[in-house]
Amino acid sequence: VISPVSLFADDSKVFSRIVSEKNKNKCNGANGNEVLQGDLDRIKEWADKWKMEFNVDKCKMMHLGSSNPKSNYTMGGANLAITTEERDLGVLIDDKLEFDKHIRGIVNKANRMLGLIRIGFSCLDEEIFMNLYPVLVRPLLEYCVQVWSPYKQKYINLIEGVQRRAT
User: Fold this and answer.
1) CA 118 to chain centre
2) Which superkingdom (predicted)?
3) Is residue 135 left, alpha or beta, with left meaning phi > 0 and alpha meaning psi from -120 to 50?
């Protein structure tokens, strides 16, 4: 396999820089479409050799970048589905490398958890809440923050809104 491969447990990702036809000569004639399709074919051959199966229905293609020619790719004769967003290790990412839906989702989960804490404890005092908040709410807000770290003020305000609601 020529393209970079990322492996984690039973999950694998193959990625390649795709050069459009008009920029092909500027990049030493390399075209990522053929390289990526060849790598997918070689991965399928390897899996067949070792009596493993890829569930092609779960294999997806995400095109990144505005100059991407958005080619179709196959694996084992079946076309790979094209997706615009995907959840990977609990983080929702889209084809623009934005985390808007992910941040809104975790803020909603954290607000629901705050509501459950308020409903679930009839005698909720400050001491009990100070024990519950770091265990039940903060992990929701901090999971994989290194990946989706909010840099836009609107996302920072959403996340801080959870803490304001809690206090």
Assistant:
1) 32
2) Eukaryota
3) alpha
